[in-house]
Design goal:
6-stranded mixed β-sheet, globular, alpha/beta, about 35% helix, about 20% strand, about 400 residues, 2 domains, D-Maltodextrin-Binding Protein, domain 2
Length: about 400
Amino acid sequence: MNLRPLRIGFVPLLDMAPLAVAHEMGFAADEGLALDLRCAPSWSSLRDMLLWGQVDAAQMLAPVPVAMALGLGGAVARLDILQVMSINGDVVGVSTALADRLRDIGHDFGFDDAALGARLLARVAMARPLRIGVPFPFSTHAELVRYWLRDAALDYELCTIPPPRMADALLAAEVDAFCVGEPWGSVAVEQGAGALFLPGRAIWAAAPEKVLAVRHDWVSNHDALAGRLMRAVWRAARWLGLQENRITASEILARPEYTNAPAELLDRALRGEMVISPRGELRRVPDVIRFFDGAATFPWRSQMAWFGAQLARHHGLDMAASIASAKAVCRTDLYRTHLRSAGADLPGASEKIEGSLHHPTAVASERGTMILPPNAFFDGQIFDPDRP
């Protein structure tokens, strides 16, 4: 069979797994595709690779297409979200010095209470602003940190650090804390640079982290090709959702051409057993990262609307227009068209009330099998995209 080459960009993180698995386990070949997976050193370089046509599609930070639709970050083209690649997957970490100060005031690093964490972090803050590393200005990491600390009496600044450099930045005291995707938080622990403070899901229980993004003009001219890629990535995500495939997935992702990180660290995150400090303290965290279950791959307009609303507040933009623009980049039409035949269950609506679910909830869907997981925010807030 002659396979159609397709160039796909990624940054070396656990959540690029659907791309690696689609390539390595034959899901792309089943769709007649030969994926040429190209690693980028940072999110800015990957964004530029996609914008200037050096890759056809890319793993992308969920807020980037939204920010570009709002005219932020030097937008030169529209990016569309075909599907979500991962939910959660981020961790908040602190330096060894901060961890010691937190323990001195009695914090037990329970790894689950974001509200308490914000208060205690404010108590041990330094005279200068706390420097918090995030991978990119327009990222789920940055939005989670801003939302988490918005009411804390804490002066801080966000510093952009590529994910593979986060542990080194903490060791070199370039930052005091970070929010980064796995396995780079666990790498910081392994290197003795600091301790993990919170999983990202403690701030928002179902935060969309990475998406499969393409240029709007590209997908307009390659609809059928986009569908083949979507089905390959969707089937890879389904494979990743099966526990019996966890070890194989870790071994694939550990290869130098993907994350080049220890398979053991990748496996820990996949099974939700996190070593949070050099002391060896273990915390069990369900849904540290999720690839498939609970409609994880569906590009919910309400999730991108939340990012649009946050960016509108930060940058003084019109709220209603920002939310409308954020919703427009979610190609739920292509998802329904191309993934129905693959067996995807499709929700009756493309929006939901973010923050409203505190336990698994069955919702209306075409196949009647859709159960959404909790999506609560740590502070109990509710986000209705029609009444932000």
